[in-house]
Amino acid sequence: MSKKECVAMLLAGGQGSRLGALTSNVAKPAVSFGGKFRIIDFALSNCANSGVSTVGVLTQYRPYILHSYIGTGEAWNLDDREGGVSILPPYATQTGGAWYAGTADAVTQNLGYIETQDPEYVLILSGDQLYRMDYGKMLESHKEHNADLTIAVMPVPWEEASRFGILTTDSEDRIVKFTEKPKKPDSNLASMGIYIFNAKLLVDTLKEDAVDQTSEHDFGSNIIPKLLADGKRLYTYEFNGFWRDVGTISSYHETSMDLLGPNPEFDIYSHDFPIMSNASTRPPAFFGKDAAADDCLVANGCKVFGTVKHSILSTDAFVGERAQVIDSVLLPGARVKAGACVVRAILGENASVEENVEVGSVDVTKDTAVIGNDVVVGKGEN
Amino acid sequence: MEKLIGLITCNYSAKIPGPLSDTRPIASMPYLGRYRLVDFPLSNMVNSGIRTVGMVMPYNYRSIIDHVGSGKDWDLDRKNGGLFILPGSAFGTSRTGSRFLLRDLIHNKVYFERSSAEAVIFSTANFVYNIDLTKMFEAHKASGADITVLTKTAADKDIDVTGFDVQDGRVRGVHHGVVFGDTSFLDCFIVSRQLLLDMFDWYTATDYLDVFEAMQNDFERVNVQTYGFDGYVAPIFNKTAYYRSNMDLLDPHISDELFPEGRFIKTKAHDTAPTKNEVGSHVTNSLISAGCRIFGSVSGSVLGRNVIVESGATIRDSVIMQDCVIKSGARIENAIVDRNNLVPAGTEFRGTPENILVKEKGRG
């Protein structure tokens, strides 16, 4: 992919309200994941690894941590003099300003950015999905089909198809129908919310959509149906691999647990397509004399004196003597003090479970326990 | 105006050659899994607000440059100041035992001349400690000393550490090797920039000497005072000291002292995923860097990045550097295994606490 041929617009403004306490003070893309990463690392690394070196990141909700984390983009080799990462929050003009009203509106408000970069293609991405994809291959497919819009899709189990935006294609992968959450799906290809548009078509369509008062300004609900109705060339690009949207506490917990076990589907150790992150340099993880850690991911700066089973310990997490951590995720700086017990729980950043306190339950019918960022759980508080 | 600039002499090699230091300068010797020794003087300076640091290079500087790059990871990629790579003596200073060879400093006179800093802080890359140098600089100014040297009372005999003869709070002489109770030099000192430039003139004829050797007869004229440090210190001049210091850090108290909150040791950042303690692994009393996959047993050891310990492999009381693969059933004890080694299945690699076995760098 040559430079500026394709510009990515990364939608990272989501609040992620269904992640509850984990997003009380950070935007969802900035939520820690997998021990040392933040969710947005996956999309930014995909861009870097695919040669997409111009990335506009659209932010809105609680952007401070997200902005400082992205910085100049150097952690993803995206600090290019030409292009690189640009952070695009909502802004005001002479006629006023407004929050981003939908996915399409967010891009519409930044058409100026796209026009300045003047690319041939625009890649629309979400900053809150976990997957590894070479966008270069998707762009090749887009060009081969001489498409106006290519939508990345993945086959989902038929019984779950009614939960997704489903695309029905002809034998050449051309989209003939798009149905949001169909009751009786006639295809099992779900949209991943990853689009490649011909830039000119995108700009024209968004300008039209902006003045359409009946539109919700959403790619899935408005833009795609409109282009389909207009007879434009819409194609699918099929992706087969690990892809997760960690939109809820249970999916966050489940996806975290998917990184454990003998042969996880998602290989975080790949050298060819590394997941890059803006990590702080902390000392190696320390395991004490009585530590017992089995089936765990343990990041730098952790100190483990107790027992940890089937869990993820993020940077600087602490597990005290005689403490137990089972089927849980400790976000950066979370502390489980001596004798405490944490089961099927997510501890937010710098959260602390005081000595001999129990959090969570082995009962899988109960919800995963969540302790918010910076929250201290003392005796009798849970 | 910048008050202090730094200079690190990276061209002092280990006096006792060995497989670990034959292939790299001491400055880029891996330490505690993820660090290199030069990270300590660099971080100490940067954490004390210094943003101009020169590094005098040895002839085999590849690994140092690979590590420090533009200085970005230490916030030394500055528009003004930042990291200066300075040429050093062609073959290092190992033969003379000098730490701050005058010739190396005089050759780089322009680095000191172009600065407008009040003083220069010098360090080698042979010592492991974490210190707030701003306090030392304050003490230097308060005492009115010409030179302030960082010292610690020797707890042990060490033939490689420099000792000072101190009377009435002033340094009166210098000697090689220390015994218990001596004032040992931590290879770090502050000197006013003007005095340094004057000294270059005084000692032009003896530029083959170390700064302090050259000053041997001038301690009455030059006011050299000591500044004591009482935190954890490890001089790394040979493999035993290197091994012991890595093991020292398995003590959480020492580790807390070397890595205090808010004064981190900075190092080159890598995109390495967290370590995975796989099902059935046993890891106790060990420091494990990121990217390792551990299926076997590790105790009393320090592992570098991306080490794979297969199931049935056992590592005890050893230092394993990055990218090693310890195959199933292998046993490693009291050893230092340099990077990129593949220890074949079923092999034993054992030293004794008195004689640590060293496996030199592998290919790759």
Care to describe what's here?
The complex is a heterodimer of chains A (about 375) and B (about 375). By secondary structure, chain A is of the alpha/beta class. Chain A contains eight helices and 29 strands. Chain A has helices spanning about 40-50, 65-70, 105-110, 110-115, 135-145, 200-210, 220-230, 250-255, and strands at about 5-10, 30-35, 35-40, 55-60, 85-90, 90-95, 95, 120-125, 130, 150-155, 165-170, 175-180, 190-200, 235-240, 245, 285, 290-300, 305, 305-315, 320, 325, 330, 335, 340-345, 345, 350-355, 360, 370, 375. In chain A, the strands form six sheets. In chain A, strands 1, 4, 5, 8, 10, 11, 12, 13 and 14 form a nine-stranded mixed beta sheet that branches. In chain A, strands 17, 19, 21, 22, 24, 25, 27 and 28 form an eight-stranded parallel beta sheet that branches. In chain A, strands 16-18-20-23-26-29 form a six-stranded parallel beta sheet, with no helix packed on it. In chain A, a hairpin with a 3-residue loop joins strand 2 (about 30-35) and strand 3. The longest helix of chain A has 12 residues, at about 200-210. Chain A starts with 5 loop residues before the first strand and ends in a 5-residue tail after the last strand. In chain A, about 50% of the residues are buried. The longest helix of chain B is centred in the middle third of the chain and has 11 residues, at about 135-145. Chain B is built from ten helices and 28 strands. In chain B, strands 1, 4, 5, 6, 8, 9, 10, 11 and 12 form a nine-stranded mixed beta sheet that branches. Chain B has a five-stranded parallel beta sheet with strand order 14-17-20-23-26, with no helix packed on it. Chain B has a five-stranded parallel beta sheet with strand order 15-18-21-24-27, with no helix packed on it. Chain B is of the alpha/beta class. Chain B has helices spanning about 20, 40-45, 60-70, 100-105, 110-115, 135-145, 195-200, 210-215, 240-250, 250-260; strands at about 5-10, 30, 35, 50-55, 80-85, 120-125, 125-130, 145-155, 160-165, 170-180, 185-190, 225-230, 235, 275, 280-285, 285-290, 295, 295-300, 300-305, 310, 315, 320, 325, 330-335, 335, 340-345, 350, 355-360. The mean pLDDT of chain B is about 95. The chains are: A alpha/beta (about 375), B alpha/beta (about 375). The interface of A and B includes residues 74, 283, 298, 300 and 314 of A. Strand 16 (about 285) of chain A pairs antiparallel with strand 16 of chain B, so a sheet runs across the interface.
